[in-house]
Amino acid sequence: MPRHSWALKAGFWACIVIAIAAVLRRAFALQHPVSVGGPPELLQLDAFFQTHAALTRVHIFTTLLYVSLLPCVFWRRTRHFQIVRLLFYALGIGVCLSAFAMSAHPVGGAVEGAAILFYNSLFLVSLLLSFHAWRAGQERNSLRWTLRATAVSLGIATTRPVMGIFFATSRLTHWTPQLFFGPAFWIGFSINAILMELWLRKHPLFSQRRWHE
Fold first, then answer.
1. What is the per-residue pLDDT for 196?
2. What is the mean pLDDT of the segment spanning 194-205?
3. Is residue 71 part of a domain?
4. Bigger pLDDT: 82 or 206?
């Protein structure tokens, strides 16, 4: 496992915490009927996800298991590391399939749906290439694609602060979640994917000069 910069580690753990918090918040909202005491935009979102409660539960709890497992994937001293990797791939595919299903009813319409389809496909391809390289014994190549898959999958956490900015400025912009969810998804996922690609190209273990397994 290559050495990571403190910024990459901080971003990784921040995304883990945000993703888990988002899952727990959504799970709590699904267990309670929509009330009239909160911000209108948030109440509308809660009501929207209530209409797809079963699929939402499948997606968020699969995501919770996947995100909780991620730190173990990058800690080689973990016992039963082979099992951890297999669970990583299985849960990743579960997250991917449930996300594809949820993209049929995106909050942000076609713009959000396009972001989900694009980055979910990128996540799936990265996951499959990581698995193929792992089975072939190409550890460095597998790690490269694992990092890419992880960065994309944690893009859902990066969208949360972006959404927070849109929520905070909604009184000025008059943008509803239906309008800003799409841009927020494109921005959040793009940040993670681009930063990871730049880091991979800069790191000596993954630089173009050494891309030979």
1. 94
2. 88
3. yes
4. 82
pLDDT digits (tens, 9 = 90+) for 149-163: 999 999 999 999 999
In a domain, 1, yes or no: no
Q: Which long-range contacts (CB under 8 A, 24 or more apart) does 99-102 make?
A: 99/59, 101/55, 101/59, 102/52, 102/55, 102/56, 102/59
Spell out the residues 6+ positions from residue 177 whose beta carbon is closer than 8 angstroms to its own. Answer: 41, 44, 45, 107, 108, 163
CA angle 122-123-124, nearest 5°? 90
Q: Which of 45-59, 74-88, 106-120, 191-205 holds the top average pLDDT?
A: 106-120
The pair of structure tokens assigned to 79 is 């016992």
Identify the sign of the CA torsion 117, 89, 153, 93: positive
Amino acid letter, 71: P
For 153, residues 6+ apart whose C-beta sits below 8 A from its C-beta are 66, 67, 92, 95, 123
- The reply to whether 88 falls in a domain is yes
Q: Is the pTM above the cut of 0.70?
A: yes
